[in-house]
Amino acid sequence: MPIYRALSLKQPWANLIRDGRKTIETRTWATSYRGELLLCASKMPRIEPFGCAMCLVELIDCRPMRRKDWRAACIKPYEPAFGWHLTNIRPVPPVPVRGSLQIFSVELPDLLPLK
Fold it and tell me: What are the E-state strand segments in the chain?
């Protein structure tokens, strides 16, 4: 089974990214990681779907948020904020995943993007 690098998000943000409406995730911390990430919806709040894999994305940049970035982040500005710029968003089947803080590794069956 493949091992995925993953990131947990609360709802409704996970749904917004999966649906392509949110292309910048914000965090109070930066990462040097670039590449494929499995985004997972955390168990709380209980907005469907929760506690599962949502989509595969490519993390292409991480930098301090700029004024022009906030609309794509779908959130009100706050400090400090780093924008995690996402592209190539591919929804996957809602496989249960136990989330974690920071970027974590999870072993799952091959997650083929939904058509």
Answer: 3-9, 24-27, 35-41, 52-64, 82-91, 104-107
As a whole number of angstroms, the distance between CA 92 and CA 107 comes to: 15
Task: Determine contact, residues 20/51, Cβ cutoff 8 Å.
Answer: no
Can you give the CATH number for the domain in which 11 is found? 2.30.130.30
Q: Which domain holds residue 33?
A: 3-97
For residue 109, the model assigns a pLDDT of: 84
Q: What is the pTM of this model?
A: 0.93
DSSP SS3 for 25: strand
Residue pLDDT, tens place only, 55-64: 999 999 999 9
